[in-house]
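Q: Given only this backbone (241 positions), what sequence would you predict?
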């Protein structure tokens, strides 16, 4: 079982406890908002969204079960976790871990995530100037990184991956073999990996299954191992293959 799935189960367990014990401060059937420029020690909900205004500071966790979490520009937060909902993080945000089970994770420009970014079923995107100090993982969902940097590994089972505008992965790209946790995806489909112009994978592209692999002539890759080799990659010029 992958780290993202283990952490997701832990998150679900904790949030179910919130449902059972609302006296601990969780809002049950309403959304929660932290105003722009305000300070909060953390916010939680069960069936509601959470929003954090521009420039706000949240020193505790943001947690909900059924609802999206939105963090506006230049805010500072700790962990943000939801089960059924997306995470939308603005520009210039400072955050630690970001985690959802069923939902996309969208990270704006010049945002720093000092931890991991995880989802099971959802797209993960990072815009220019943003960085993640830990690993980025999903099972089903695409990755789009434009001019951003990941210090850890990038791991998926069924997701397409595109690095553009000189994006950097300092660790490995890992594509796992489909198994019992690969929800609602055809095992015969080959994910597509595009390493765009000026982009770099300092580690190795480790493949437990065949993919459609495209590497720009101006990109750098530490190697390709597993079910394919570098000889299997299609080299291309221009912005996209």
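A: Predicted residues:
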């Amino acid at each position: 079982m992958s780290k993202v799935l283990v952490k997701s189960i832990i998150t679900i367990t904790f949030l179910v406890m919130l449902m059972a014990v609302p006296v601990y401060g969780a809002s049950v059937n309403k959304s929660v908002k932290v105003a722009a420029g305000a300070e909060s020690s953390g916010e939680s909900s069960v069936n509601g969204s959470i929003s954090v205004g521009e420039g706000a500071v949240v020193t505790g966790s943001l947690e909900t079960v059924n609802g999206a979490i939105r963090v506006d520009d230049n805010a500072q937060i700790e962990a943000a976790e939801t089960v059924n909902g997306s995470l939308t993080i603005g520009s210039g945000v400072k955050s630690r871990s970001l985690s959802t089970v069923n939902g996309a994770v969208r990270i704006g420009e010049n945002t720093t995530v000092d931890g991991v970014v995880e989802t099971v079923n959802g797209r993960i995107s990072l815009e220019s100037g943003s960085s993640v100090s830990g690993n980025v993982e999903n099972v089903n969902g695409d990755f789009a990184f434009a001019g951003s940097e990941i210090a850890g590994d990038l791991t998926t089972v069924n997701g397409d991956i595109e690095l553009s505008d000189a994006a950097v992965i300092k660790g490995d790209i890992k594509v796992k073999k489909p198994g019992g946790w690969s929800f609602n995806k055809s095992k015969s489909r080959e994910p597509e990996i595009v390493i765009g112009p000026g982009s770099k994978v300092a580690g190795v592209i480790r493949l437990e299954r065949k993919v459609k692999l495209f590497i720009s002539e101006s990109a750098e890759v530490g190697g390709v191992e597993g079910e394919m080799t570098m000889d299997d990659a299609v080299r291309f010029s221009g912005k996209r293959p």
